[in-house]
Amino acid sequence: MIIKIEMNDKEFELFRDYIYERSGIHYTINKKTILQNRVRRRLRDLELDSYTKYFNIIKNKSMSDPEVIKFFDEVTTNETSFFRHDKQFIALEKMVIPELLANRRISTINIWSAAASTGKEAYTIAAVLKEIPELKGKNIKILGTDLNQKVLNIAKEGKYDIKDIKNVEKKYLKYFDIDEKNGIVTVKNELKSLVTFKRFNLTDRFTSIPKMDIIFCRNVFIYFQKHTQKEIVDKFYDKLNPNGFFILGHSETLNGIDNNFTYRKFNNENLMIYQK
Ligand SMILES: C[S@@+](CC[C@H](N)C(=O)[O-])C[C@H]1O[C@@H](n2cnc3c(N)ncnc32)[C@H](O)[C@@H]1O
């Protein structure tokens, strides 16, 4: 069935409020066509002919319901890449890790990629940490979480298009099995074994999350309103060990959000790195 119907404003508002209440993601009216096209895919799969009928199917279901999972798989935006904003990973190697090691005797280092998408961020962190001699013999635990189950399945598999590693520095390529013939790269177990992925909603309570030394939460705050950002920032602060680091995306900031973090520059550059 081909659904050509447009989502009307009333339907848009139903979905907008539903998504916002459950995930914090704020769809503004100028994103109506994007939302319509995304929801339409669910209508097509279920052979439904109206947005309201679909809304009635999901409206009272829990976040772990299979259809609700599929809905949020559609309405989240998952763009990511290996070594995205690479200067932040230089700061991770040259400032963040050395300071953590200097501050405290650490046998296990816990890092959270809190909007992990397909796992490229978590595997980038793993590769960087593997190359730091001072971390030899330490237990590295990276947790990757996301609301979108589909991207997490890709993350767990660790299989990507060969084009995705074109900007990865040569010294890190040893962590990938490269299949030139089929144009596929697979993350090796050496990295995979450091990372665990699970579905987690940042607007939920953080009781199931262990204490962290570093939290990456990059390029998801842009979808949240200030008060949602503030609630999540406070929860991150509580989850961090003393002196722990919190890293935002390069176009995001805590400016204008009342918070307890200290802003840290690296080489006099603004890399959106904060410290508890
Ligand atoms: C643009 S990606 C960012 C990926 C990666 N951090 C990066 O910077 O390359 C944003 C991710 O946030 C996830 N997300 C959106 N709302 C969320 C929520 N409430 N809880 C958990 N993850 C969420 C989306 O599913 C998406 O995969």
Written description of the protein model:
There is one protein chain. With 276 residues, this protein is α/β, with parallel strands linked by helices. It has two domains: 9-75, Orthogonal Bundle (Chemotaxis Receptor Methyltransferase Cher, domain 1); 86-275, 3-Layer(aba) Sandwich (Rossmann fold), CATH 3.40.50.150. The protein has nine helices and ten strands. The longest helix has 18 residues, at 86-103. The protein is globular. The relative contact order is 0.13. It comes from Hypnocyclicus thermotrophus. It catalyses: L-glutamyl-[protein] + S-adenosyl-L-methionine = [protein]-L-glutamate 5-O-methyl ester + S-adenosyl-L-homocysteine. GO terms for molecular function: protein-glutamate O-methyltransferase activity.
Number of domains: 2
Number of helices: 9
- CATH homologous superfamily caption of the largest domain: Vaccinia Virus protein VP39
Largest sheet: 7 strands, mixed
Give the overall average pLDDT. Answer: 97
Helix and strand string, N-terminal first?
A: HHHHHEHEHEEEHEEHEEE
